[in-house]
Amino acid sequence: MGKLSIDQLRERVRGAVVTPDDDAYEEARAVNNAMIDRRPAAVVRCANAGDVMAAVDFARENGLDLAVRGGGHSVPGFGTCDDGVVADLSGMRGVRVDAARRTARAEGGATWGDFNAATYAYGLATTGGIISTTGIGGLTLGGGIGYLCRGLGLSCDNLISADVVTADGRIVVASEEENPDLFWALRGGSGNFGAVTSFEYRLSPVKDIYGGPMLFELDDAATVLRSFAEYIADAPEQLGGFPAFQLAPPLPFIPADRHGDPFALIVACWAGPLDEGERALRAFHDFAPVVAEHVGPMPYPALNSAFDALVPPGLQHYWKANFVTELTDAAIEAHLVHGPKLPAVNSTVHIYPVNGACHRVGAQETAFAYRDANFATVIAGMWPDPADNDANIAWVRDYYEATAPHSEEGGYINFMAEDDQSRIRANYKGNYDRLAEVKRTYDPGNLFHLNQNIQPAA
Predict the structure, then answer these.
(1) What pLDDT is recorded for position 301?
(2) DSSP, res 454
(3) Integer Cα distance of 432 and 425 in angstroms
(4) Which of 102, 127, 234, 262 is a good FRET partner for 120, with 20 to 30 A between their CA atoms?
């Protein structure tokens, strides 16, 4: 395999190196999206940062593709590759909390479930995602939208520092004080600049929240969407959550004869004082009659994992996304046409509010450029049977094409599909050229190209 052999790589690393001849290969090469069927030459199950450095060196010196895997949730399958090297960080999941400083340092393969379990014990949290099995790395590097972002900002806004293995095999610290250009680029620039082996986050007092899902009839969907958009514009920033479309899963709080029916819904998260929760959510109940709900006080990690069962490993995935400045009547009409046609109970459409604290960071302060957007929409096509791929991909594309004229040109990088490479410049708006310069500094050969790729500046 070129300058270094697999045996030499095995001697250098602490973790296992899995190749096609090994019994563990089929498990090691799998990612969450079952639509992705790639066969890497080696999967390095990294045990520490030194193993990540070795995997990067091995790929570079042998001229092989390099994929970096954290939680494995990348919809385009960027956590694996054909005939190349996978640096699999999923075994590096430690989280250490410094309660006095209100910070936490987490290894690059940790999930939000790992992170929340560690911080909850101290009554602390930071903005995570919506599914607890999502890796902290991919979510943060792409920006990080979640329940708490209106009050706390994006995940990347709460990043204090990162340890990064760069393309030349070095490990560097990125922060406001050290390598600040790299730190700027990591906060929204995705995996373009290196493999992050640990993240240090700022934490805030959040322990138990008041919230959960509320289901509304489709006949009331227009009112719910319009009312939500108006209300959330200046609602208290402790109020998070989002409107959505969803087929009713077979849950006890939903009438049995409505299981499988399409609904509009709001998933709410009040992170202020618990005794104010019922009043904080009252406006949502006033939008329209609630068919069913599961709302009340709960640990924040319980809400963050509430939908995990709908997104098990092994589904087919195809997603599209846009940022939205204004949820216009025309946009709502497009949602009403396509949202109720959800192809499976796993599929969903979420319209995340990204105002509040997200707007207090300037468009050029981090790589995440859409600081004037009020919503980030994702059309998340997910279903179990590959025989349905053509029809369900068509649903996602038709939905996207109907809403795109009423949206911004760019979308949230973490929701992009493999066929969205042509949108990279639009996704970063005015920040793309600076990102390309940082890319040239830290990865001039584009070793880290299995991502929504930013080309090094010429």
Answers:
(1) 98
(2) P
(3) 6
(4) 234
Q: Which of 138, 186, 155 is nearest to 441 (CA)?
A: 186
Dihedral angle over CA of 387, 391, 396, 399, nearest 10 = -160
Query: 297 - beta bridge partners?
Result: 210
- Chain segment 399-428, per-residue pLDDT in tens: 999 999 999 999 999 999 999 999 999 999
**CA–CA dist 121, 133 (Å, integer):** 19
Sign of CA dihedral 329, 330, 335, 338: positive
Residue 4 has pLDDT above 90, yes or no: no
Q: Tell me if the pTM is above 0.90.
A: yes
Question: Which among 134, 144, 161 has a CA at the least distance from the CA of 70?
Answer: 134
DSSP symbols for 35-104: T-----SEEEE-SSHHHHHHHHHHHHHHT--EEEESSS--TT-TT--SSSEEEE-TT---EEEETTTTEE
Cα 411 to chain centroid distance, Å, stands at 13
Give residue-wise pLDDT tens across range 89-112.
999 999 999 999 999 999 999 999
Count of beta carbons in the 10 Å neighbourhood of residue 401: 12
- How many CB atoms within 10 Å of residue 305? 19
- Structure tokens of 241? 């959550």
Q: Compute the average pLDDT of residues 6-30.
A: 97
Q: What percent of the chain shows pLDDT beyond 90?
A: 99
Contact call for residues 190 and 447 (beta carbons, < 8 A): no
Give the HSE-up count for residue 102: Cα atoms under 13 Å, Cβ half-sphere: 10
Q: How far is CA 305 from CA 12, 190, 277, 380, in A?
A: 37, 23, 20, 17
Q: How far apart, in whole angstroms, are the C-alpha atoms of residue 229 and residue 150? A: 14
Q: Is the separation of the CB atoms in 327 and 395 below 8 Å?
A: no
Query: Tokens at residue 137, please?
Result: 């790395």
* Residue 326 confidence (pLDDT) above 50: yes
Distances (CA, A) of 197 to 43, 167, 201: 17, 13, 13
Give, in degrees to the nearest 5, the angle at Cα 320 between 314 and 322: 145
Q: Rounded distance, CA 197 to CA 74, Å?
A: 17
What do you get for the CA distance between the two ends of the chain, in Å? 30
Residue 2 predicted with pLDDT over 80? no
Q: What sign does the dihedral 138-142-146-151 (CA atoms) show?
A: positive
Other beta carbons within 10 angstroms of residue 5's beta carbon come to 12
CB 89 within 8 A of CB 68: yes
Is the pLDDT at 222 greater than 60? The verdict is yes
Whether residue 300 contacts residue 146, with contact meaning beta carbons closer than 8 Å, is answered with no
Q: Do 83 and 65 contact (CB within 8 A), yes or no?
A: yes
